[in-house]
Specification:
Keywords: Oxidoreductase
CATH class: Alpha Beta
CATH superfamily: NAD(P)-binding Rossmann-like Domain
Largest sheet: 7 strands, parallel
Order of helices and strands: HEHEHEHEHEHEHHE
GO molecular function: oxidoreductase activity
Strand content: 5-15%
Mean pLDDT: 92
Organism: Parafrankia irregularis
Helix content: 40-55%
Radius of gyration: 18 Å
CATH architecture: 3-Layer(aba) Sandwich
CATH topology: Rossmann fold
Protein name: 3alpha(Or 20beta)-hydroxysteroid dehydrogenase
Number of strands: 7
Number of helices: 8
Family: Belongs to the short-chain dehydrogenases/reductases (SDR) family.
Amino acid sequence: MTGGTEATRAAGAPGPLAPLAGKVALITGSARGQGEVTARRFVAAGAQVMITDILAGEGAKVAASLGDAAVFQELDVRDETAWAAAVAALRASFGRLDVLVNNAAIHWIRPLLEDNAADLDRLLAVNLRGPFLGIQACVPLMLEGDGGSIINISSIAGVKAFRGHGVYGAAKWALRGMSKVAALELAPRIRVNCILPGAIDSPMLPPGAAERVSAGTPMGRLGRSDEIAEGALYLASAASSYTTGTDLVIDGGSTTGP
């Protein structure tokens, strides 16, 4: 992706209403919640999108609702073979890849001493191994084209300690570190950034937590999935052409203090 100079815009680059025109994106965990909202926002911005998830029925419905702009591919992000199949299907459907959003994740809140090694391995397989395999699988196709943008969804639990988030936080801290290394190694053709959401009103929020979390946030409310999608749109588009290796925090001020 190149910068949005006046000369570039005059030459016919996508305008502000279609900042992803001509681009192709793969979004993991996009059958529902934050991933689905991001996929819909990308299509509205002019992109073609591969919806991927282990929830085949829900993912297929999302893709069908987006018409020719989307296809669905069942994908277990823990599986290297499944990633290869997804990239092959992407090549057959769209012939290119410009944006990878590593959104799929699992989450729970549990004291560290009550966690166990098996659950640690299970969470790391989705939240860290998944993005690792995604980067390895997708970068070659991205480099066949114009390069592009990789967006890893981390968390404010990857920058600040929260009780009950020992295992989840470990994965999100590690994802930030891996993203920064990838940004160094893949520049200048591919940019790699993280989004760090705060508490978002989504299926991942534990039941009964909304009021308590809202009260502890300077903005006095939960975040919305569309607000995260707008951050992803910025990092996917040429508007962020000089942004790589960074963290975009969208948390209503939660990390500003106690």
